[in-house]
Write a structure and sequence with these properties.
This protein is an all-alpha fold. The chain has a domain of about 220 residues. It is about 75% helix and about 0% strand. It is built from 19 helices and two strands. Strands 1-2 form a two-stranded antiparallel ribbon.
């Protein structure tokens, strides 16, 4: 049997079928080991899939041999391949990094269910970006969301339960809006296959229900993606989730929703709704600017490192939203590359925070004063990832910001204002990263504070692997830019 032809379904089945097995493992450390190996296999599948897509173009897989649109289709192109790398890679490094931290926070008794839920999140997110069916996308969206609630609620802090409840309510509203929108499109086209849906909308005489569907789907996915001003659930969810789980979720949970939003807006709605391009730009550009200015400004005043990075993510999502709103190949390339680069930088930052919390028992900035001298390797990785988030040259963050600024400069007079907004937001990022550096290196340890020592070698090894990735992908951009440029061309109708 040729396994290469079945890679799209293996990408989902491997973590999905392993999750119930992991839930039955009661030997300490075995659930973590099984989940880590499974996630590593899923990452290997994603790497192989990406190689095949780069070599031979998009892959289509008909479930049960039923040819689409009559059967359910899995479809992996350059855009989906990049997202699959983000999801499975973030999961694998977070699991490899987080054993000691998760043992401390989750404990051995709850570990089997926790790691089973983790694998369900991986399976759900992979399903979201690989499926070619709008309703199955909703199913995978709910699988990943329900399992994510379990991950967040597993933290020992009781405030995690309130953060989970808030996320559950808003996530349910977002999923309901998405489902209403899909129902309206199905009513008008009679199909749930995304490619077939695009073709059939062209034959619809009355487009107002499709326009309403676009509104429902956009708002629903904006809630899932924590786009400003629908981001209220995200800072608390990131703050109170177990530290390693935050490193995983911050890298990829909102990215899957952004992927779906970009896919729907540019391939389903944009070709057929005459005013949709103006609506996307008119609504998203001001929201994007508010996101990266307000998100960055709030982060400057936060004293909790995880909450600070949560508001920073609001700003970074604003950059991605701006790239979508400008609707040019250059801007969309920058937005798609930033999906990858943001996952890389935010994984490293949250891992560094997890190391600090593991030794200091706190993520409050005053409690971490002087930690730079006691934990130089941890803080070195934090600073390196922070430079990438600011957008310093030779880091991954610089590449995507550079593309976005170039796209703004092409946009006309308004574009100069937008480019200035990106620079102001980057200066605010300098302020909140410097705030951490100042406390870590230039302030003494508080009287009676816990004595610090460097994080365990296993945690540091993975942390520095991801931190150095911010430099590697800032210099060697062939993979990320190659996938992003082809994805942008295809989404805008200029590619094959």
């Amino acid at each position: 049997m040729n396994l290469d032809a079945h890679l799209p379904i293996l990408q989902i089945i491997v973590p999905l079928m392993t999750a119930p097995v992991v839930s039955l493992l009661r030997v300490p450390s075995l659930p973590w080991a099984a989940a880590t190996v499974t996630s590593g296999l899923a990452f290997a599948v994603a790497v192989t899939l990406t190689g095949q897509v780069l070599a031979g173009g998009p892959m289509s897989y008909a479930l049960g041999g039923w040819v689409p649109p009559y059967g359910i289709e899995l479809y992996v192109d350059h855009f989906s391949a990049l997202l699959l790398l983000i999801i499975t890679g973030a999961s694998t490094v977070a699991l490899a990094f987080g054993k000691a931290s998760l043992d401390q926070e989750v404990g051995h008794e709850r570990a089997p269910m926790f790691y089973a839920a983790w694998l369900l999140v991986v399976a759900g997110l992979c399903g979201i970006v690989a499926t070619g069916d709008a309703f199955n996308l909703f199913v995978f969206l709910e699988i990943s969301s329900l399992a994510t609630y379990v991950l967040i609620a597993s933290a020992p802090d009781r405030r995690a339960l309130m953060a989970t409840f808030r996320y559950l309510i808003l996530g349910t509203v977002g999923a309901t809006f998405y489902l209403i929108g899909v129902g309206l499109i199905y009513m008008m086209t009679g199909t749930l296959n995304l490619a077939d849906m695009t073709d059939r909308i062209a034959e619809v005489g009355e487009l107002r229900p499709v326009l309403v569907a676009a509104g429902f789907i956009t708002v629903g996915l904006a809630l899932k993606a924590a786009m400003f001003p629908l981001h209220a659930w995200m800072p608390n969810a990131y703050t109170f989730a177990p530290h390693a789980a935050t490193a995983f979720l911050a890298a990829c949970s909102t990215k899957a929703a952004i992927y779906v939003l970009i896919r729907f807006d540019l391939t389903v709605f944009l070709p057929h709704l005459s005013d949709h391009a103006e609506q996307v730009s008119g609504f998203f550009i001001p929201l994007a600017v508010l996101a990266f200015l307000i998100g960055s400004a709030v982060a400057v005043f936060e004293r909790n490192l995880k909450r600070m990075l949560g508001y920073s993510s609001v700003a970074q999502i604003g950059y991605i939203l701006l790239g979508l709103a400008l609707l040019s190949p250059l801007a969309l390339t920058g937005a798609i590359v930033h999906l990858f680069n943001h996952a890389l930088m935010k994984s490293a930052l949250f891992m560094a925070v997890a190391c600090l919390a593991f030794r200091a028992g706190s993520v409050q900035l005053p409690d971490l004063a002087g930690c730079g001298r006691a934990m130089p390797l941890t803080m070195g990785a934090f600073v390196l990832a922070g430079l990438s988030m600011i957008g310093v040259p030779l880091t991954a963050g610089f590449v995507s910001k550079w593309y976005l600024i170039l796209a703004c400069l092409e946009y006309g007079p308004l574009g100069y204002v937008l480019a200035g907004g990106i620079l102001v937001s980057s200066l605010l990022a300098v302020a909140y990263v410097w705030k951490v550096v100042e406390a870590a290196y230039f302030q003494p340890r508080p009287e009676g504070a816990r004595e610090l020592r460097e994080a365990p070698p296993a945690m540091l090894a993975v942390l520095w692997l991801v931190a150095l990735g911010n430099v590697w992908f800032g210099i060697d951009t062939d993979l990320t830019l190659g996938l992003a440029e082809q994805a942008a061309a295809t989404l805008l109708g200029d590619g094959s």
